[in-house]
Every structure is written in C-alpha cells, then in structure tokens.
Specification:
The protein contains eleven helices and 15 strands. The protein is an alpha/beta fold. Strands 5-4-1-13-14-15 form a six-stranded parallel sheet, with helices on both faces. Strand 8, helix 6 and strand 9 form a beta-alpha-beta unit. The chain starts with a helix and ends with a helix.
C-alpha cells in the first residue's frame, strides 16, 4: 500500500462513505482522527448545492467529527470558485436557495436578472415559476448556462425528491439547451478542491466514495487516486460490470485507516 501512504489529502464523499443519514459509519471517527494525527488533510465533497458549508460543518459536528468550513466543498462553492477563475465579480442570474445566494454574494458576484454574464442553476428547493421563466428567457438569448451538479434525485428520510438534474431536464424541454456542469462526476469540482489545497501535488490527492458513476468517475476524470468503499451504494458486482475502475476497493473507511497505519509503520 505504498501509494496509499503517499496520499496527503482525502476528498471524501459523505453519505454512504462517512455516514448513513444521521448515523456515523463504523471507523469513520478513527479514520478522520488518524488523518489529523498523521499530518494528513481531508475535504468533504458534496454535490448538494442547496446548503452551504456551514450546514455540513454542523452536520459533521453533530455526528462527532470536528471540522471547519475549510474541510467542506459543495458543488455550489465549486461553481462559484470556477466562475471566479473565469470572471471575478461577474453578474449572475442565480436559480438557487438563499444559502446558495449567500455563497455567491460572499464570492463578490452580483446577483441580477439584468444583462447577466451567466445563468447558474443549483438544487433550488425554493424554485418558483417566475425564476424558471426568467432563466429560460436568458438561456434562449444565449447567456452562458452553468449548473452546479447533475443529480436527478436527492435522497431524504422520506424518499427521493427532485434534484438539480431534474430541473436541468425541465429547462432543456423548454429551451433545448443543456448547461456546463461542475459537480461530480465532472472533474471541475475536483479542480476546485485543488484550488482549495494548492500546497498538494496531484498524486497526493485521493477521491473516496461509494458511487462509481459519481465519486469514482470524478476521481478518474481528474487523474487522481480513487478509492471505492463498499459501505454504501456500490457492490463488487457493479465494479465488474462498470468501465469505471477505482485504484483501490475497500469495505469502508475503517479499512483505509488500517491500511494507512500499516503503510506508515513500514516507512
């Protein structure tokens, strides 16, 4: 496990990888604590753009994991980061929640429907018909169209609810246009993590998650180490049938913790 021992920053999916809903998965606390003790780093990477980093910091703290906003990257932040790299202080028509609006304002963007540089679609749980009408009109006029992530559904305690991908399809039906997408499985969200941690080399990052078609594919697309954990959605059968191949496969993050310790002890 020499290569695993060289990883300095772990990009971590949450649900199915670190936790299942309001329950911490076995070994997750030990894993995070060992990363800190051994001088390693971590970022929780989520496609959900309806909440900001503060929400996930509190969620992790409630589960017993101490972290800060510097340890969280949402697709909303990644989208703001990406657009800031293209045009700082741009004018944006944003279809998103108040949390996402706050994220973009904090990055220095102006939120407006008057001659915007970009239309940005997030997972908008406050979506209105008026927002759709304005957004579709701007998109038809040729304003550059960006979406935070492609997930069709968001899992909740009571079942699935329509996510950003469903809204993308609604807008496509009206305008015929598809957006540039930032979140997993696209590598732009991983590149945003790189900008968040510029001190590390490419080979010192690893993406860890339980979904082949989002988490692992994002790692593969970004050309970094990818680690599939079998504690959530994916099973070995899925790996055998998929053309997306992770660098490592473990039962869960508890196994990563043990393998890291072994690698460190043999240095």
């Amino acid at each position: 496990m020499e290569n695993l021992g060289k990883i300095k920053c772990f990009l971590l999916d949450m649900d199915g990888t670190i936790n299942l809903g309001a329950k911490l998965l076995s070994g997750s606390g030990d894993f995070i604590n060992y990363l800190k003790e051994s001088g390693r780093d971590f970022i929780f990477v989520t496609n959900n753009s309806s909440k900001n980093g503060r929400h996930y910091v509190q969620k992790m703290r409630n589960l017993g994991i101490d972290c800060s906003s510097n340890n969280v990257l949402t697709s909303g932040e990644a989208t703001a980061n990406y657009l800031n790299s293209l045009k700082p202080k741009a004018k944006i028509y944003l279809i998103g929640t108040p949390d996402l609006e706050e994220e973009f304002i904090n990055w220095g963007f102006t939120l407006t429907a008057e001659n915007p540089d970009y239309v940005v679609l997030g997972f908008d749980m406050t979506l209105t018909y008026e927002k759709l009408v304005i957004g579709c009109d701007l998109i038809r006029k040729g304003v550059t169209y960006i979406a935070t992530h492609p997930d069709f559904n968001c899992p909740t305690e009571t079942g699935y609810i329509p996510d950003c991908g469903s809204m993308i399809e609604l807008i496509k039906a009206s305008t015929g246009k598809l957006p540039k997408i930032i979140g997993k499985p696209n590598d732009l969200i991983i590149k945003s993590a790189f900008r968040k941690r510029p001190q590390y080399k490419l080979e010192e990052f690893a993406m860890v998650g339980d979904r082949l078609y989002t988490d692992i594919k994002a790692g593969v697309c970004a050309d970094i180490t990818s680690i599939l954990v079998l504690s959530g959605e994916a099973a070995m059968k899925d790996v055998e049938e998929s053309d997306v191949k992770p660098t490592f496969i473990f039962d869960g993050v508890a196994t990563i913790y043990q393998k890291l310790k072994e690698a460190d002890e043999t240095k």
